[in-house]
Amino acid sequence: MAPMDAPHVVILPFPAQGHIKPMLKLAELLSQAGFTVSFVNSDHNHHRIDQTAAFRRHFPGIKFLSIPDGLPPDHRRTGLAALDLFFSTTTFCKPIFKNLIASMSHAPSCIISDGIMSFAIDVAEELGIPAITFRTYSATCTWTYFHLHKLIQEGEIPVLIEGSEDMDRLISCIPGLENIMRRRDLPSICRLDPQNQILQFYMTQTSKMRKASALILNTFEELEAPIISLLHSIFPTVYAIGPLHTALKSSAVHNSGPYNSSSLMPFDESCMEWLNSQNLKSVLYVSFGTVVSLSRDQLMEFWYGLVNSDKPFLWAVRPDLIWDENGPGEVPEELKMGTKKRGRIVGWAPQEDVLAHNAIGGFLTHSGWNSTLESITAGKPMICWPILADQQVNGRCVSEMWKVGLDMKDVCDRSTVEKMVRGLMEGRHEEVTKSTNEIARLAQDSVREGGSSHRNINKLIEDIKLLHATNNASKGNK
Ligand code: UDP
Q: Where does the record place a coiled coil (predicted)?
C-alpha cells in the first residue's frame, strides 16, 4: 500500500468492459508509481469483480470502490441494453459520487474520469480538485466527436445509409481529416437524427470534457501525431500513453503474471491449446467485442463466409451476440462440419494472448478501439466490420490512414467475407503486410524506456505529483 502522504488518484470509468480495461491498466501504472489509487466501479461490476479472487489478488495496490449505476438490479446491461447506462449514469450518479469523494479521509490529488462520465468533472470543480479526462477512443475519433456541432450545422448529419446519398463523398469540415473521412466513416451516431438522445448525449459529454485540465488517450504519437497536435487547440496537455495493455507488460515490475486480468468475464483458455496445434499465421481470429449484436442472417453470412474461405478460424461468440429472440436457430449441417474441421468457437477468448499467438494470421473485428490497438500491437492485419460508436472511424483509419487492414463497412454477405478472408490470410495485400509490421514495431517501441508513450506516462506521473504538492502547499497556507 502507498503511504498516506502519497498522491491519491481517483479513477472513474464508464461501467463497460471496453472502458474499464484501459482505465484499470492506467490505475495499475499509477499504483506502481507509488500513488494511492481508488478505482470506482459501478456496484454491478464491482460485484462481478468481487466474485473473482484472482482479480483482487492481481491489484493489491488499488482500492476498489463502487457507486450505483442507476439501473435496476435485474437490468441486462449487456449488448445494446448497455446504452441505458448513458442516461442512468448522467441522471443518477453525480450526488453519490460527490458524497463518496467528499467523505474520503485521504483527499484526492486529482480525479481521472471517463470522457462520457463528465459529471465527475463538475464534482471535481465543486470540490476544488483538479480533473483530467480520459477518452477511451482514438485521437482521430475524439477529434471527430468535437466536430459533431459543425457536422450538424453543415447538414452532414444525419447520414442516411439508404437512398440516393453518396456515402463515399469526403467530409470537408473536420480539419486534418479532409482527405480521409467519407460520410460512411463518420461515427454511427451521425446516422441518427440531430435531436436523437444518444447523439445529444455524446455532444453534451464531449463539450463538457473541455472543462478538464488535460486529456488522456490510449494511443501513441507515432500513430496519430497530427490529430493529437490538433487536440492541443482544445486541451493544453494531451497525454498519449498507449497502447496501455503493452505499457504494463513493458514495465519492469510487471514482466510476469496474468496480464489479461482486467476482464470482467472468465476466459475460455482451451483455445490456446488448439492454437498451439495450428500452423504459423494460418488462423483468423474473429470477435465482435462486447456490445455489437448480430441478426441471425448476419451470423449466417459470416459463418458461411468463414467456412467457405477454407481457412482455420477461432471465433469468440458471446452468449448475447445474436439479438434474434430465437437465437441462431437450426445450424446447417455444412456449417457444423466445416467448423468441426477447421474452426473453434469459444464464448470469451483471452484476446490479448490469442492475438499475440503466432498461429494467428489476421483478425476479423468490429473495430472497437481496444481490439484495434491490441491487433496493431500484435502485428496482426485486420478485416474491419464496424457497426457502432467509434468503430466506423477506426475502420477507416485502419484501412486508409495506417493501411493495416481492409474495411468491410456496411457490407455483410458471405462472398465478400470469403473473398476478404482469403485475400488477407493469403497475404495478397502487400502494403498491408508491410505497414502492419512497421506499425507494430512503433507501437511496441512507444512504451519502451525512452519511447513516446513511456515519456508521456512519466510526465503524467510527474504532473500529478506536482498537483499533489500544490494541493498540500495550499492547505498548509490556510
Ligand atoms: N475481449 C476479450 N475476449 C473476447 C472479446 C473481447 O478479452 O472474447 C476484450 C478485448 O481484448 C478488448 C475488449 O474486450 O480489450 C473489447 O474492447 P473493444 O474496445 O475492442 O470493443 P467494445 O468493448 O467496444 O465492444
A: none
